[in-house]
Amino acid sequence: MSQIAGHHHISMITKNATDNLHFYEEILGLRLVKKTVNQEDTKMYHLFYGDVTGSPGTELTFFEIPNAGRTHRGTNAITKIGMFIPSKESLHYWRNRLNEHQIFQSDITTYAGREAIHFEDPDGLNLVLLNGEKDTFPDFWTAWPDSPVPEEHRILGMGPVEMTVQNASSLASTLENIFGYQQVKLAGKGLLYQSTEGHAFGEILIVEQEGPVQKPGKGSVHHLAIRVKDGDDLRYWAKRIQDYGYEVLYMKDRFYFESLYFQDENGIMFELATDGPGFTVDSSIEILGTKLDLPPFLEPKREEIERHLKPIRRTR
């Protein structure tokens, strides 16, 4: 049986791409590895951050929507993103770093069974840094040598992703019966699932909550993408999703990876994305993220696309 190998990427809404770049690259120390556009709306930037090459499992991605309003928080939404750092000493480093940049954060607390600090990005997206010193991570996650964050404290990659839903048992059943996720013991609120037993880099934390459904805006999460091996694997999972009674909304070759989308009964949007070919398919490692990259099927429209995009400014 095929196996979900963890998170691939997660995609959010930002109001301002320049502010977003400053926060994620210059403060959090992630690398902008791909500056491209939303393939369904080419007037919109799509920015990918991650390790030195944007390896699967390290990618945070953002669609820029300048007129996005605030998010009205509620249920049936992806509500928090965990990111692993190397040690407890790193938690103290990050408390100091966030303070220096006047970013409010929590005291060191416990989240998904690990020591953690909570904070928000400029759009109000809920983020958590977690002590990963007792965890193991994919060998291909590779530090970006030009990060402003020292390597011993850098963000390694994605951790638990929190989903707040009205029907926790339905989402749990989807994870277990379609994708083979396994529940792990958790001393605290919610149901914690792992895509790969014993590995935290593919965890999903389900929190049940009644009340109004979240209305998305800036700082909201559009979807979580989970890892599959290749196109053949993607089609295998498409059949399993359909056999379980869900509709595959669409499948697409996005050039950097192939993907499919579906929604669970709570309205949570999932993407399944292939590991390759990756972001170096049209760019050398050295210049990743420094120019606007377009897949071949959009390249003939480059002049028109660039005319509608506002330049993104780096401040360092």
Question: Secondary structure elements and their pairing?
Answer:
Blueprint: E1 7-14, H1 17-27, E2 31-38, E3 41-50, E4 59-64, E5 77-85, H2 88-100, E6 109-111, E7 114-120, E8 126-131, E9 157-165, H3 168-177, E10 182-184, E11 191-194, E12 203-208, E13 221-228, H4 231-243, E14 250-253, E15 257-263, E16 269-277, H5 302-307
Parallel strand pairs: 1-4, 5-8, 9-12, 13-16
Antiparallel strand pairs: 1-13, 2-3, 3-4, 5-9, 6-7, 7-8, 10-11, 11-12, 14-15, 15-16
Could you characterize what this model shows?
By secondary structure, this protein is α+β, with helices and mostly antiparallel strands. It is 17% helix and 34% strand. It contains 5 helices and 16 strands. It has helices at residues 17-27, 88-100, 168-177, 231-243, 302-307; strands spanning 7-14, 31-38, 41-50, 59-64, 77-85, 109-111, 114-120, 126-131, 157-165, 182-184, 191-194, 203-208, 221-228, 250-253, 257-263, 269-277. The strands form 2 sheets. The chain has an 8-stranded mixed sheet. An 8-stranded mixed sheet has the order 6-7-8-5-9-12-11-10. The longest helix is centred in the N-terminal third of the chain and has 13 residues, at 88-100.
